């Protein structure tokens, strides 16, 4: 596994601007990132970038990732196809906290056309700082993981 603090990040064209903001925000927190693309606002398929990030989290190469598309829906659907990935679409603070506490979400997904930079920064910070509670929630995660074994 690479630096356990490093975040792998990706977006499609609709999430590109917010991705660039989030990378800067993370840099300000001294959290390194690996950017899987896209590299601009030209139309691309979200599935390509969602799969790149999800595969690297699924394999254990990275502990956590962030994905951004227009609504966050497509990236969520794509990422959650991979074993061991628990991608959570969070466009509000409560979801960002709860997906960590109860679901140990390892990929944060946001909608670049849904939220602004201020809220995105708060969501990212909450997601990074909230620990997993374990206990009965661990049993539920194990059930989810057993559904995606291939």
Please supply descriptive tags for the structure shown above:
5 strands, alpha/beta, Ribose 5-phosphate Isomerase B, Chain: A, five-stranded parallel beta sheet, single chain, 150 residues, 45% helix
Strand order, main sheet: write it out: 2-1-3-5-4
How many distinct beta strands?
5
Rg result: 14 Å
CATH architecture: 3-Layer(aba) Sandwich
CATH superfamily: Sugar-phosphate isomerase, RpiB/LacA/LacB
Low-confidence stretches: none
Regarding quaternary structure, what we see is: single chain
Report the order of strands and helices.
EHEHEHEHEHH
Number of domains: 1
Approximate strand percentage: 5-15%
Count of alpha and pi helical runs = 6
**Fraction of residues in H or I helices:** 40-55%
- Assigned CATH class: Alpha Beta
CATH topology: Ribose 5-phosphate Isomerase B, Chain: A
Taking the sheet with the most strands, its summary is: 5 strands, parallel
What is the rounded distance between the termini?
A: 22 Å
- The general outline is globular
Could you report the average pLDDT, rounded to the nearest whole number? Answer: 95
Class inferred from helices and paired strands = alpha/beta
